[in-house]
């Protein structure tokens, strides 16, 4: 018996070292740790990506399959299959399931804003359509979705309202109507606002005023998503730190909702995360097409560790950190704002292997 215990004592640390602890087992003790998943990951149950989602994360968000353009491409027509599969996958793996997104200027089919003659509809008609859309989608997943990105990217970086069709046709109160309709459809679901460039004071101050206005009207809003499509030199950590505090000071939680790191060179006239920007491919703009040298990889690692150090410092204010892809191969940054590049945007490489600095982040949260 004594020899058995001795062998066990010697073997245990080796076994533990061999099995690197996961994000879910470490970071997941501070806040939900999630990732955006696309339908191919959800459906390929035997893939490395699918396994990584199940072992590393405890929360998932639909990258595209719950967007209006996908769910309802034409009036009265619904495509539920991928969204249903996404929800089923999350429930089968006992994960927090996040719906993204209900009211957005992008990826919303044109029919929502136009009548049969192609003319823009009236305020009254669009309010009816918004209510019907939100009640249909949120109602279908009532009790299955923990929280919804209700309004997405309603503000410009200077703090003014984005002149989306929602804003132009309905007016300023489209935001409060969206939160009212979502709460009516599922009173238990958390409701979030989500935007990018949220370390820009003009933007986060405008969002904070909007949050306070919703709360003053007795409307439910639980958290603000700072998308966090970060870079090697932006946002400045001190500004990012201030933004987290400013949002939390309104009484809502902060969600790091679409975390990735754009380490590729940007075209000169690039800014923010406006998805409509597109530029020509060139090898010069794709410097890590054949991998990354150690010095550069270490530089990326230091930047990632700085962000996760900040998130741990703010863990009492942060409800969730969600990566906007499972691994580098899945990142939207491979094709935005320049198609066909090799992004190095996440903590897992193109073969879904952990990058060297993942263990440093895990050590920080043990
Ligand atoms: O599904 C069609 C496919 O049938 C077609 O063959 C193909 C080629 O045109 O397009 C496919 O749709 C693409 C979709 O992703 C699914 O892959 C759209 O063109 C493409 O525009 C869409 O991009 C998504 C983008 O939002 C716009 O919806 C990205 O994957 C997604 O990562 C990105 O995510 C957004 C968040 O929702 C909001 N915050 C910013 C973030 C990054 O833009």
Report on the architecture of this protein.
By secondary structure, the protein is an alpha/beta fold. It is built from 12 helices and 9 strands. The chain has helices at 2-18, 39-43, 48-56, 68-71, 81-92, 123-140, 165-170, 174-185, 201-216, 237-248, 294-313, 358-364, and strands at 32-37, 59-62, 96-104, 147-152, 190-195, 223-226, 229-231, 253-262, 318-323. β8, α11 (294-313) and β9 (318-323) form a beta-alpha-beta unit. α9 (201-216) packs parallel to α10 and α11 runs parallel beside α12 (358-364). It is globular. The two termini are 32 Å apart. Residues 12-17 have low confidence and may be disordered. It binds ligand G3I. Ligand G3I is lined by residues 63-64, 67, 106-107, 152, 227, 258, 273, 275, 332.
Strand content: 5-15%
Number of strands: 9
Bound molecules: ligand G3I
The portion of residues assigned to helices is 25-40%
Radius of gyration: 21 Å
Question: What would the average pLDDT be, to the nearest integer?
Answer: 93
Q: Structural class of the helices, strands and pairings?
A: alpha/beta
Q: Overall 3D geometry?
A: globular
N/C terminus separation: 32 Å
How many helices? 12
Which stretches are poorly predicted, pLDDT < 50 over at least 5 residues? 12-17
């Amino acid at each position: 018996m004594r020899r058995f215990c001795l062998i066990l004592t010697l073997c245990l640390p080796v076994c533990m070292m061999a099995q690197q602890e996961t994000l879910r087992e470490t970071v997941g003790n501070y806040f939900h740790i999630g990732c955006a998943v696309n339908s191919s990951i959800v459906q390929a149950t035997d893939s490395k990506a699918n396994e990584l989602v199940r072992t590393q994360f405890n929360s998932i968000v639909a990258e595209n399959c719950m967007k209006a353009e996908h769910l309802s491409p034409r009036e009265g027509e619904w495509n539920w299959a991928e969204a249903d599969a996404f929800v089923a996958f999350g429930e089968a793996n006992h994960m927090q399931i996040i719906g993204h997104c209900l009211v957005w200027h992008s990826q919303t089919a044109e029919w929502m804003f136009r009548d049969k003659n192609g003319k823009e509809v009236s305020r009254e008609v669009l309010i009816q359509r918004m209510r019907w859309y939100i009640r249909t989608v949120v109602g279908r997943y009532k009790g299955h979705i923990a929280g919804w990105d209700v309004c997405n990217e309603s503000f410009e970086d200077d703090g003014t309202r984005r002149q989306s069709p929602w804003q132009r046709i309905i007016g300023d109160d489209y935001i409060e109507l969206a939160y009212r309709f979502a709460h009516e459809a599922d009173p238990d679901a958390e409701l979030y606002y989500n935007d990018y460039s949220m370390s820009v004071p003009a933007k986060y101050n405008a969002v904070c005023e909007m949050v306070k206005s919703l709360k003053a009207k007795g409307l439910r809003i639980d958290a603000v998503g700072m998308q966090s499509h970060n870079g090697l030199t932006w946002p400045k950590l001190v500004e990012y730190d201030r933004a987290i505090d400013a949002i939390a000071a309104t009484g809502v939680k902060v969600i790091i909702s679409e975390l990735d790191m754009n380490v590729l060179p940007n075209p000169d006239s690039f800014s923010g995360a406006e998805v409509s920007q597109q530029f020509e491919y060139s090898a010069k703009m794709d410097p890590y097409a054949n991998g990354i040298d150690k010095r550069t990889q270490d530089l990326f690692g230091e930047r990632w560790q700085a962000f996760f150090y900040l998130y741990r410092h703010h863990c009492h204010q942060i409800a969730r950190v969600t990566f906007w892809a499972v691994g580098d191969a899945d990142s939207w940054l491979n094709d935005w704002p320049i198609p066909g590049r090799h992004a190095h945007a996440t903590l897992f490489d193109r073969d879904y292997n952990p990058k060297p600095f993942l263990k440093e982040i895990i050590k920080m949260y043990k």
